[in-house]
Specification:
The structure is a single chain. With 153 residues, the protein is of the alpha+beta class. The protein has a domain of 105 residues: Roll (Pnp Oxidase, Chain A), CATH 2.30.110.10. Helices cover 30% and strands 43% of the residues. The chain has four helices and eight strands. Strands 1, 2, 3, 4, 5, 6, 7 and 8 form an eight-stranded antiparallel β-sheet that branches. A hairpin with a 2-residue loop joins strand 4 and strand 5. Helix 3 crosses helix 4.
Amino acid sequence: MRNLNRDQMISLLQTVREGFLAMCDEGRPYCLPFGFVFVDGSVYISLFPKGRKWDCLKKNPRVCFSAFAWNAGGNRWSSVVVEGEIAEVTDLELIRPVVQANMLKMGFNPAGGYLERRMRFYEQALAKPDGLRIMQIRIAHMGGKTMAAVAGT
């Protein structure tokens, strides 16, 4: 096993689509899968402000987020773990590059009005107490590892 350097960690976070958000629910661990993007040094996810995850995040914003990927040959994995605090993003000008990055990551072309439609959706969602939220994980620490799937390969 070896450490990933910062560029390798960022590359993984920019290409992998899913990761896992770990929280602490009054002393009990709680982990959920999320789609995410990495923009300007932060991890962003979207979620609805309800349920156990929302209750956990309101009580304790300290989180851990992990993403991993196999190489093309399926014989080596790499992972990144970030630790930090999560907060809701309410400024539409900060939401715009996150939405655009997500569209590009998912293979959508932001041209042709789609980005503007998504931005109107988020503007309307922010006005609703139960609307979809964009959350930013401000990274305090980031580490990454890579290893062959079978020892000795």
